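Subject: for your reference before the review

Hello V.,

The reviewers asked for a structural picture of the protein, and I figured it would be easier to keep everything in one thread rather than splitting it across files. Below is the amino acid sequence we used in the manuscript, unchanged from the supplementary table.
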Amino acid sequence: MKRLVLLLSVFLAWALFAPKRSVHSAPGRLPFPTRDSHARIDLADANAVKAWCDELHTTEERLRAAISKAGTAEAAVRYELELAS
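And here is what came back from the structure prediction:
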């Protein structure tokens, strides 16, 4: 029982005081990668580009600029678009 309490307290301390990292420090983001943070944006597919523009409330030009700067990971592109706003 003592080990469990110690383990939980260490985890909570880590979760509260861990240094924030670039993509995961965006507001509303968890401090660890999730399944959704691994989504990729495919610029070769015109329908996908339109869908991503609608999803991210941006233009195709801004989306392409964010991808060229941050890569194709959805989380990184969202963060880059938030910084650009």
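For the response letter, the relevant points are probably these. The chain has a mean pLDDT of 80. The CA atoms of residues 41 and 72 lie 5 Å apart.

Happy to draft the paragraph if you're swamped.

O.
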